UniProtKB/TrEMBL annotation:
Family indicated by similarity: Belongs to the MntP (TC 9.B.29) family.
Species assigned in the record: Oceanobacillus limi
Domain of life assignment: Bacteria
Statement: the UniProt record of this protein carries the keyword Glycoprotein: no
Transmembrane region(s): 6-28, 40-66, 72-93, 105-128, 134-155, 162-183
Subcellular location: Cell membrane
Name listed for the protein in its UniProt record: Putative manganese efflux pump MntP
Gene name in the database record: mntP
């Protein structure tokens, strides 16, 4: 393996971890809900798949779409996270309201889309730079899946320690991360 190829792998690995950190942060907040380990494993796989599909679509469309789309995807992703976090905060104070965003069905896909939409933008730029598509997709999917699992399991443990306040903390984390995506 040449030094150039190794350098490309290392830089793509760091990029994959950076993109997966939003999945970790959001999963930390979502893990504070009472979620079974089997569901956590499934959620990690779905988020990993979204972190494969989104940059793939970005790479494929990288030549055809202008750079303006990147800003829009970050805004949409940030707004989704703020919405999920706000809902968690409101449900923490109103015990009668049921959860709007679930980690099942369409709620899971909204959740996965929210944490993986930024990888679409990265895919656009990688498509323009001619990165190795298979390597990018493998690293992005694996890193986000493992980081999602880590975040949800850690969030689950924090939930046991904090009890009722964990939902407030989880919602605050989601809102803060969404705002960071929008304004950061």
């Amino acid at each position: 393996m040449t030094t150039h190829a190794l350098g490309e792998i290392v830089s793509l690995l760091f990029m994959a971890i950076a993109l997966g950190m939003d999945a970790f942060s959001v999963s930390l907040g979502m893990g504070m809900q009472h979620i079974r380990l089997k569901r956590i494993a499934f959620i990690g796989i779905i988020i990993g798949l979204f972190h494969v599909m989104m940059p793939f679509f970005g790479i494929v469309l990288g030549q055809a779409i202008s750079g303006k789309i990147g800003d829009l995807t970050s805004l949409v992703g940030g707004l989704l996270l703020v919405g999920i976090g706000t809902q968690m905060l409101l449900s923490a104070f109103n015990h009668e309201s049921r959860q709007v965003i679930q980690t099942t069905g369409i709620g899971l896909f909204i959740f996965a889309l929210g944490v993986s939409i930024d990888s679409f933008s990265v895919g656009l730029s990688l498509g323009l730079s001619g990165a190795k598509t298979a390597l990018v997709l493998l690293l992005f999917g694996a890193a986000s899946m493992v980081l999602t699992w880590m975040g949800m399991i850690l969030g689950r443990k924090v939930h046991r320690l904090l009890g009722v306040y964990s939902e407030i903390l989880g919602g605050s984390i989601l809102c803060a991360f969404g705002l960071f995506i929008i304004f950061g």
